[in-house]
Automatic annotation (TrEMBL), chain B:
The chain crosses the membrane at residues 12-34, 73-99, 111-130, 136-155, 186-205, 242-262. This is ABC transporter permease. It comes from Actinomadura craniellae. GO terms for cellular component: plasma membrane. InterPro entries: BP-dependent_transpt_permease (IPR050366), MetI-like (IPR000515), MetI-like_sf (IPR035906). Keywords: Cell membrane, Membrane, Transmembrane, Transmembrane helix, Transport. GO terms for biological process: transmembrane transport. Residues 73-263 form the ABC transmembrane type-1 domain. Belongs to the binding-protein-dependent transport system permease family. It is a multi-pass membrane protein.
Automatic annotation (TrEMBL), chain C:
Keywords: ATP-binding, Nucleotide-binding, Transport. SUPFAM superfamilies: P-loop containing nucleoside triphosphate hydrolases. Gene3D superfamilies: P-loop containing nucleotide triphosphate hydrolases. One of its GO terms (biological process) is transmembrane transport. GO terms for molecular function: ATP binding; ATP hydrolysis activity. This is ABC transporter ATP-binding protein. Transmembrane segments: none annotated. PANTHER family: D,D-DIPEPTIDE TRANSPORT ATP-BINDING PROTEIN DDPF-RELATED, TRANSPORT ATP-BINDING PROTEIN. It comes from Actinomadura craniellae.
Amino acid sequence: MTTDMTPPLLSLDDLSVGFTRYTGVARTRTVTGVTSLSLDIAPGEILAVIGASGSGKTLLAQAILGILPANATVSGRITFDGTPLDERRLRKLRGREISYIPQSVNNLDPLMTVGKQVRIGLDPPTAREWQRALFSRYGLADDVARRYPFQLSGGMLRRVLFATSVRDTVRLVIADEPTPGLHADAVAEVLRHLRELAEGGASVLLITHDIFAATAIARRVAVMHEGALRTVEAASAFTGDGDDLEHPFARALWRALPQNQFSPGSEPWRSS
Amino acid sequence: MSATVKPRRRAALIRSLVLTGVLVGAILAGSVLLDDSALTSSIESRLLPPGLDHPFGTDHLGRDMFTRVVKGLALSLAIGVATALISTAISTVLGIAAALSARWFDNAVSWLIDLFIGIPHLIFMILIAFTVGGGIPGIMLGVATTHWMALALLVRADTKQLRDADFVKVSRGLGRSPWFIASRHILPLASPQLVVGFVLMFPHVVLHEAALTFLGFGFSPQTPAIGILLSEGMPHILSGKWWLAVFPGLALLLVVLCFARLGDQLRARFDPRTANG
Amino acid sequence: MALIVTDLAFAHPGAEPLYRAANLHVEAGTVVGLTGASGTGKSTLGALVAGDLRPRSGKITIDGRPLPRRGFRPVQLIHQHPEHAVNPRSRMRSVLNESHRPSPETLERVGIRREWLDRFPEELSGGELQRFCIARALRPDTRYLVADEMTTMFDAITQAQIWHTLLGIVRDRGLGLLVISHEQALLDRICDEQLPIDRLRNPHPAT
């Protein structure tokens, strides 16, 4: 796959996110969340964004989806399929061409049968058929559709969550930390579903703190730290002692893992 | 504690702060600067309608109503601040103590709050003011002991939430006393709530103080309190001397609305969950 | 010299009993890991051992003496979210002094810079705050530490730095350390012995 030749599906150019916060009764201050970030994702590519909590990786997803909190200010350009992604266009694309897989199964509506939730946004005449197809794709029995979230196991709910975000019109899937505290088997299943989506032609933006989940399916791994994109590395470089990694931060991160050398490194890596 | 910054709401808050500040400043400055000679009786200038010399007219003794209103408001504000402070202190002490102490004490405070909410305000205030013997101490005590309940409930709920915060658990594990926890951890974090409670309580306090005075349980008729002015002016409305009651009434309304609005906006700033709008 | 939990029973109000007769032994000078998936009661056990929660029955003894109900507890808990474990309105100096006055050498060893002492919590990163929480827990009379997902929120570099710091101090002072984590690789790296939470919840499996 020569993604370098095809134009990117999603392109972030000099994206910054800041927050206005109160510091006194009426005095305010702006805090940066993401600083001038530029990143491209090609059609059908799985791009992983890794970072710890507070690194800005979730803000990145929220900025693309236009679901940042009200006190956030965004600057920079987001381009989808060659055209700027403004609020009006986003409203049309969200759920159809751009879909979001949230972190927690708590995002499902507890008062609606899961079948109905999967049918939301599908064309009414064919919705039921599509939902059945999605259920069989994710190994869910037909009668599950009539159940409510509380009647299902955690694993089934996660598959329902996938079914709600998969549409044949989808071109970009943003998965925000889809494997939190899951067993290895469950992680493998989630990653397999994401890979299937990419094989179906959709681009996948996988946001995670888990380097191993990232390198398991992504070709490129973007490394975020304290709101800045430190480097984009080839997933294959995260191996051995990390000598193939280009950026020293990525090397330090890889070597600090308890699975590797658990090395505290020598630099403080503080941007401010 | 740190609410989302909404620019329009923030602008409204700043406007309210400035407006209330200017109003209070003007009343205080006026009460100091206005000449007391305008308050001496003079037969020839009695019951004059509003005009250039007397913007609010004069009363039946020929005293300038504008001066009386400004001085009355200043006195009401001063008494209101003191009273609301006493009331806030009661709320704070009882609210925090209830949340941090043994269950029986918490239950006792709840019972006391229910009791005070259950008894009609005005009757209770009159009783207390009467028992103390009227005058400024009577009014302050009567109003202060009937306005602390709502804020006490809020402080109690806030404290219960903070009690389970990690940093309070750590403090307890380090062997710190409830007193230390209350003063170092609870009070600083509850203080915005207290300020909001105080500002919201203030207009009620001023109104009730005026009401008590109006009913004759407050100050002697010589005191230029706004309630006295109102009770003197009311009978004259029927005889066409409308300015005697309308101007003191409007001035009181303005002050009260100003503070009520500021209180609502402060509440929206610090605790957007309980604020409407 | 050990932290010993005997026949401990606990239930959250209105819930099924979480522990019926749990036993745990943390020898002073050793690092014991408590493993298990999230939501299985690891943190609750940590809070019980540190005295933040009171068991329904059973015994917790520290070097032979019962865990005190009032006053300083020689078992100190280090929380997962340091930003919740410090008062946001306190300067870092008074956050520390709420516990004790650590020597400049201790501060340097924990990795706290002098200029951080005058800052407020929101002016520090999570990793920096966690160093304060560690220094605060390390009173001279502290005997045991419970680290509940202490570095879960941080990047791998910060995680490695904090653990290297803490493990060095723990070894030098001969403290006992109970590590609660869902990350197997981390536990494999730092623990002398590991205990699956299931074994505490069901001491006598029916097999």
